[in-house]
Automatic annotation (TrEMBL):
It is an enzyme of class 1 (oxidoreductase). Residues 2-339 form the FAD-binding domain. It catalyses: urate + NADH + O2 + H(+) = 5-hydroxyisourate + NAD(+) + H2O. Keywords: FAD, Flavoprotein, Monooxygenase, NAD, Oxidoreductase, Purine metabolism. Its cofactor is FAD. This is FAD-dependent urate hydroxylase. The keyword NAD applies. The keyword Repressor does not apply. GO terms for molecular function: FAD binding; FAD-dependent urate hydroxylase activity; urate oxidase activity. Gene3D superfamilies: FAD/NAD(P)-binding domain. The lineage of its organism: Bacteria, Pseudomonadati, Pseudomonadota, Gammaproteobacteria, Moraxellales.
Length: 385
């Protein structure tokens, strides 16, 4: 088939790589002229790594990943360890180590694997129209292209989603702002082989190791929507929001480079189940934009890609049949995880102070089994189990 993918993000690229391996002619159109990933890094949990393994990228993702052997929650003010445990039982249970990775490095690796010659940058989708035998797409440069299948992997502001649903979907503000970036590993801030999260007051400061001796960090603060975003004020604001927090948090704030730090107001969208219209199918954030609170957004996009590739390969009744089967299986799983992430978001960010305080108290009694059970429940059910 001749396939057009809208969006050169993680989902679009993984779909493109896999579809090429099955002999399809694939072109990716991306509206931005230069790829500047939103977010410094991404948690590629074991289900996401398995998707990359399936595409033959085992060594490539391993090279990008940090070694994360332990997990810990720390009281942000007192620096008391609330819980700390090994992730080995989780890795053995699901059959694959997770890898926190630089989002940019992952995206560039996928672009190289797909082939830059088939990625059209700086060209935005403007219109979709179907004929009896094809789907025709028009672009911002005045050109148009015809394909057998259009994959809308165009993110949370998806135009393809608007075509499929027949209306625009409003995003829902999750109630907090996230600052994220990369710093060199310093064990005065956190152990080099551990996912460390400082918590308190509905706020989080988290660090994960990625390749080349770096931490991926993020700060979460519950705040109103639409506050001024002044990069020059990032350090001052973080010092204000975390004024009485422990020394490692203060050290991290000193180390960040505001010019290389991202600020994101966190949103999701209400789950929906219509992902297909004719020859157009949705994938990734276009289908299930979620908060990052369980670290499954990118993994879900990769799962979508693998399941779509396989559905097209093994269900030969018709294109519509293959797409419908994809829609049914993936919408149920992805929408469940959107709601899980929303629930975790509300607990973590003190939507109800009593519930969040109860969670903090539970962490002091946690031996790792409950947390790992929750992570494993997010991982299982993927298309490569």
């Amino acid at each position: 088939m001749n396939i057009i993918i809208i969006g050169a993000g993680i989902g679009g690229l993984t779909a493109g790589i896999g579809l090429k391996k099955y002999g399809h002619q694939v072109t990716i159109y991306e509206r931005v002229e230069k790829i500047l990933p939103v977010g410094a890094a991404i948690s590629v949990w074991s289900n996401g790594v398995k998707c990359l393994n399936y595409l033959g990228l085992t060594e490539q993702v391993k090279k990008l990943g940090g070694i994360m052997d332990h997990l810990a929650y720390i009281d942000g003010k007192t620096q008391q360890t609330m819980t700390q445990f090994s992730l080995d039982p989780l890795i053995h249970e699901v059959g694959q180590r997770p890898y926190p990775v630089s989002r940019a490095e992952l995206q560039y690796m996928l672009m190289d694997e797909f082939g830059m010659q088939d990625i059209k940058l700086g060209i935005a989708l403007t219109h979709i129209q179907e004929t009896e035998d094809h789907i025709v797409v028009q672009f911002s440069d005045g050109t148009e292209a015809k394909a057998d299948l259009l994959i809308g992997a165009d993110g949370t502001h998806s135009l393809a989603r608007e075509y499929v649903l027949g209306h625009k979907v409003e995003r829902r503000y999750a109630g907090y702002v996230n600052w994220n970036g990369l710093v060199d590993i310093d064990e005065n801030i956190a152990p080099a082989d551990q996912w460390t999260t400082y918590v308190g007051e509905g706020k989080r400061v988290s660090l994960m190791p990625i390749a080349n001796n770096r931490f991926y960090f993020f700060f979460d603060v519950p705040l109103p929507l639409g506050l001024e975003n002044d990069r020059k004020q990032y350090k001052a604001l973080l010092k204000e929001y975390f004024a009485d927090w422990c020394e490692p948090v203060q050290l991290l704030i000193e180390r960040i480079d505001p010019e290389r730090t991202n600020r994101v107001e966190i949103h999701d969208i209400e789950p929906f189940y219509k992902w297909v219209k004719g020859r157009c199918v949705l994938l990734g954030d276009a289908a299930h934009s979620t908060t990052p609170d369980i670290g499954q957004g990118g993994c879900m996009a990769m799962e979508d890609s693998i399941y779509l590739i396989r559905s097209l390969a093994i269900n030969t009744n018709s294109l519509q049949d293959a797409l419908t089967r994809y829609e049914k299986v993936r919408s149920e799983r992805a929408n469940d995880l959107v709601l899980r992430a929303r629930k975790r978001c509300d607990i973590t960010h003190m939507k109800d102070p009593e519930i969040t305080q109860a969670w903090y108290e539970e962490l002091h009694q946690e031996d790792g089994q409950h947390i790992m059970k929750g992570i494993i429940s997010n991982i299982i059910g993927n298309p490569l189990d």
